[in-house]
């Protein structure tokens, strides 16, 4: 983890400015007419800024729009609204060759290296491919040197060059995926669930590698994960997503110490705390109802159908904006101050309330790293 923006003052430069981004996928019906009968509001008005050299973590339940947002930032997904400014340039206004050249500076690391690496290509060919596409394969000696440097940076021997993806373990394959992303010298790396396909014992090694590479190369990361422990280890700042929107954003320490949005509070209340005295005194926040469909998101506050603090006045009708409650800590809840200061109490939960630990595949059982 690098120095956080909060501690660094305002001197850090914004590398990625995401402004009211929307990605709405049309739902089509009918073979002949192909009518649009609705939309999946996968990303619905997200604004965030990623500063140069920091790691921004995105967390949230399965289907809340994390991957779609990551892909939109790289312009791999066509946005239906808003804009992304990368290093001062509006990406959504770019096309063709201009966009292709810009892509060198923004690379992606995928969850499953086996399906993202072509099994028929040797490691050498996989690594050279991107360099060639961007005119960086300038001669045999220089390219050989570069390939060896890349492998050494990700902790693989140079003999790996002649091998094929299936000859490596999962962790080694993810190292190849990282080397491939780095081969073209990007500024930004979007890593979508970079360690969730790996054994727990290997996860920490790959996260440490990402952190070392960041320090060495001055990289900026957007890390997407459903595992709160992963985000806690690697992210300087965290955005919590719920149904296509960011509901809370703060430094990772702040979020884990004092979550302010009811949804984040519920997620973190289910995380076991190593201290048994603290653990006994903690109250778990249960949520009623299932995650609504992103094709029919609730009106007003998207979380109102499950929120234990829901108020009849504004929650069902008015969508809360992200507001700064304290420096660097933004929350999208009309009543965040009243909840924080204990002026509002949570309602009794209904019989169908669930422990957030049972949410889909969101791993909240290990958010406190050993
Ligand atoms: N190409 C697409 N066409 C239609 N709907 C899509 C498409 N891609 C994603 N979606 C839908 O958009 C919503 C958000 O999906 P997304 O993959 O971004 O979620 P996620 O937060 O990354 O989930 P997970 O943790 O499971 O990876 C989901 O309801 C998904 O089904
Ligand atoms: S705005 Fe209302 S429903 Fe939404 S999180 Fe706050 S209290 Fe809950
Ligand atoms: Mg995803």
Structure description:
The structure is a single chain. With 370 residues, this protein is of the alpha/beta class. It has a domain of 244 residues: P-loop containing nucleotide triphosphate hydrolases (Rossmann fold, 3-Layer(aba) Sandwich). Strand 4 and strand 5 form a beta hairpin. Helix 6 packs parallel to helix 7. It starts with 13 loop residues before the first strand and ends in a 30-residue tail after the last helix. The N terminus and C terminus are likely disordered.
Strand content: 15-25%
Terminal-residue CA separation: 17 Å
Bound molecules: adenosine-5'-triphosphate, iron/sulfur cluster, magnesium ion
CATH class of the domain at 13-105 and 220-370: Alpha Beta
* Structural class by secondary-structure content: alpha/beta
Mind telling me which CATH architecture of the domain at 13-105 and 220-370 this is? 3-Layer(aba) Sandwich
Question: Got a strand count?
Answer: 12
Main sheet overview? 8 strands, mixed
Give the radius of gyration.
22 Å
Shape: globular
| CATH-assigned fold name of the domain at 13-105 and 220-370 | Rossmann fold
**The CATH homology group name of the domain at 13-105 and 220-370:** P-loop containing nucleotide triphosphate hydrolases
Query: What average pLDDT do the residues reach?
Result: 88
Helix content: 25-40%
Q: Name the strands of the widest sheet in spatial order.
A: 6-7-8-3-9-10-12-11
* Helical stretch tally: 12
